[in-house]
Amino acid sequence: MSKIKQKYLTAKNAKVGETCVCPSCGTSFVKTSYQQVFCKTKGGTVCKDKYWNTVTPTKRNNVTRISPANRAYYLDVILPNEARERGYPDVETMLNDVDEGDEMSASVENCEWCGLKPEYCRCCDYEG
After folding, report:
1. How far apart are the C-alpha atoms of 67 and 91, rounded to whole Å?
2. Which residue in 71, 70, 76, 55 sits closest to 112, CA to CA?
3. 36, 46, 80, 109: least buried by Cβ within 10 Å?
4. What is the pLDDT of residues 46-79, one digit of tens each?
5. Considering only CA atoms, which of 50, 46, 18, 48 is closest in space to residue 31?
6. Which of 127, 126, 86 is nearest to 95 (CA)?
């Protein structure tokens, strides 16, 4: 078991009133409630977020850092507006559109996150 997970379990199993060490930043704190595992010295949920983003493989490997809510908004609102602005009847038609005469666009894969051709993608840093 990794050291960071061991620190988490130690803090989780400590009793209220005991001194614990934050698994994320290493700050000592007195546990004030049974569910507390992280310190409150950094403000907000900084230590908790850092811990879970580190130990969860899917979050650790996520290079886009786009939340599920932002992704849903992008798929439900932004893409339909984009399709309408470009004159397509729907998003699927826009996503499937490939210029036959443009060899470059046929050889480049669509963005794996939003499905658009790289030159239309706004969710990643395409430089083409």
Report:
1. 21
2. 71
3. 109
4. 888 888 888 877 666 666 666 778 778 888 888 8
5. 18
6. 86
> Mapping DSSP to helix (H, G, I), strand (E, B) and coil, where does residue 52 land?
helix
d(CA 43, CA 82): 38
Among the listed residues 24, 27, 30, the one whose alpha carbon sits nearest the alpha carbon of residue 5:
24
CA distance from start to end of the chain: 43
| E-only strand ranges, the chain | 19-21, 28-30
Whether the Cβ atoms of residue 10 and residue 26 lie closer than 8 Å to each other: no
